[in-house]
Design goal:
221 residues, mainly alpha, 69% helix
Amino acid sequence: MMNCDLPLVTAISLGLVTAYLLGSIPSAVWIGKSFYGVDVREKGSKNAGATNTIRVLGLLPGLFVLGIDAFKGWLAVYLARFFGSSLPQHDYLVYYQLLVGVFCVIGHALPVFASFRGGKGVATMLGVVIGLFDKIIPLVLAVFVIVFILTHYISVSSMSAAVSFPIFYSCCSIWLHYDINTVQLCFSILVALFILWTHRKNIRRLMRHEEPKFKFKKTVD
């Protein structure tokens, strides 16, 4: 494990700040403005995320944004191993990584580099989950893909995958004979609730039958 020679409190605090700043990198906003002269927050769903980027700018820039946003979450969790290397127990490091992941997602939703107007945090949260729950990711992604194929709603797919996360965590722990970590289980539940909360407008549109189905077609030339 990498070692950090800074005092523990300083190192932990620096890790949290780093995670927030990583999350604050507004890839959708910067790519849209730099290469297309468009602020994606003013078009489509007005969300600074991969889905709206695909909708507004096209598939390639949207996938690029998706990769960057997910990488932010994964990198924050990975760097936590460095900043939290002096923690006395492995469990404490895991809890610190969870907290770092939360700070990264907060940075994505409220980015200091983009006037605190960010995205919903789905891709960044995905990166965090990949960094911490790699065994569950294939199952969660399978739920996303299956629901998307059936409905063509990104919002429904994202929420379904999020809700499946704590279920798969609990089931896999039982099937693989792992002890269920209460903190990790609570985190998985909070992830599901967070994704549902960030999609509250989508839920209202779905109830009114006004939610648009996703199409791989840009709306801005």
